[in-house]
Amino acid sequence: MADLVxxxxxxxxxxxxxxxxxxxxRWALEEAGLPYRIASTPSRSKSAKHFMHQPFGQVPWLxxxxxxxxxxxxxxxxxxxxxxxxxxxxPRGRSEAxxxxxxxxxxxxxxxxxxxxxxxxxxxxxxxxxKRLDDFLKARLKHLEPVLAKRQWLAGTFxxxxxxxxxxxxxxxxxDGLADYPACRNYVARALARPAFxxxxxxxxxxxxxxxxATAPM
Length: 218
Description:
This protein is α+β, with helices and mostly antiparallel strands. It is about 60% helix and about 10% strand. Strands 2-1-3-4 form a 4-stranded mixed β-sheet, covered by helices on one side. The longest helix has about 30 residues, at about 90-120. The radius of gyration is 18 Å and the shape is globular. It starts with a strand and ends with a helix.
């Protein structure tokens, strides 16, 4: 089996720590018990090698032998194809996991990320722009709420779809955006209670803390 190498930034500011998207991949690797190692790339001076692996200068990317993959959704799908812990071997179960993986990215995160960025920057005044963002997210959550009220996990058993959807929703929950959607909030709580998430989150936080210590003035 080829070595799996997950590359993330060497350092990020305090605010995004715990939310950098290498966490999604760490979580999946921990759930599957796949051996991997972490590599770092500078966040403040991006190299040609960085853009070769990730053309937008973002993280993460994963190398699997001679394969190099960017975009967290694509990486999760790749890992799901390697492990039945992450995606069912049954064709119907695999199809359901894949459709919800893409729903998390294309239907929910499309609405949640602009909303969360507006919350972060304080652009939430009584303006038409903010109302559109808020209404867009609420419309998505309104339709997701009854789905999550009826099932523990999106594709029957826990899968890559839940890793992505829970990670998308926990950013909304960070800004209390799930207050009126108890099924969504409970779903996030179930996912984040998994030991693999706790390990992935702790490891990411430790990674950036180690960078702080390495660059601290003597």
